[in-house]
Structures are given as C-alpha cells and as structure tokens.
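Internal tracking record. Fields below are filled automatically when a chain is submitted to the structure queue. Please do not edit lines marked as system-generated. If the sequence contains nonstandard residues, flag them in the REMARKS field before resubmitting.
Queue: standard
Priority: normal
Entity type: single polypeptide chain
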Amino acid sequence: AEAGPERALAELRERYAAYAPPVPALLAALSEKDLELFPHTRRRASLPWGRGRSLLIGDAAHAMPPILAQGAGQALEDVAALAHTLAGATGEDAAAALPAYERARRRRAVLASAAATRGVATAGPRTAFQTETALRGAVALPDRLATWLFGRLVTGVSNRLGR
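SYSTEM-GENERATED OUTPUT FOLLOWS
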C-alpha cells in the first residue's frame, strides 16, 4: 500500500508520542490537510558569492539538498574557511581577501552539492535504493566498510578534512 498523508501523520504521532509537551498536542492537532510535500529545488551557486565587504555563506551561496546534514556541514566549513581567510585582516584588507575565500571554498561546495543531489532521488530508478528495505539492507554492511565509505564522502567535500 502506498504511504499517504494519513500514514505519515500516524507515523509521526507514533514516533514522537513520548516527547515532552507540547509535541504530542501539536501532532494531535494536525490533520492530513496540514501535510504537504516540499520537494527540494536545486539551483546553481550564485556568482560571485559576495561584493565589497558583503558575502553569502552556507545555503545562501550554495544550496544543498537535505541529506547527511550537508547544508549545516558546508555552512560550518564556510565559517572556518572565512575565519582563516580573514585572520589578521582589517578594513579594506578584509574586503580584498573575500575573493580568495570564495576560490578556496567553491570547488568543495560544488562537490558537496553534487554528492548530496545524487543521494536524493524523488523519481526514477534511483528511488529503489531509498526504500525502507534497501536502507535496512545497508545495515548489513560491515561497520568498518560503512565508516570508510562515509569518511571518503565527507573528506571529499570538506576543506578542513580533505587536506
């Protein structure tokens, strides 16, 4: 049977039933009409990420699909790279350093976005790998192999860990 809003709402209520108030009351107040699908829309990173002393970071500069916390992770990478770039810079020196930050981050952010986008399928044959059965089967991977695979993914998209 296909999962619809009524099944999703029942699963939410079941999963969060033991949470502290007001979570159960909020879920009890919802109806199927309150649930909607919000598909991720991928957009290219803007060029440039900044102008003068203003700069975009995180999803504002390079949006990520909601997988493996890449949006949060890449925003933290941005902050670390920006802090490194601006260390000791003041005034106009700081504004002049911003393009170097963008050059340092762009490649990894684009790689992270592409990897996250490949990981999210909303239609087509790739969705077969995102079924509950397939995900439960992934548990059969040896821990060391799963850790190694995840480590390869993370270091491939990290300016900090990929050094």
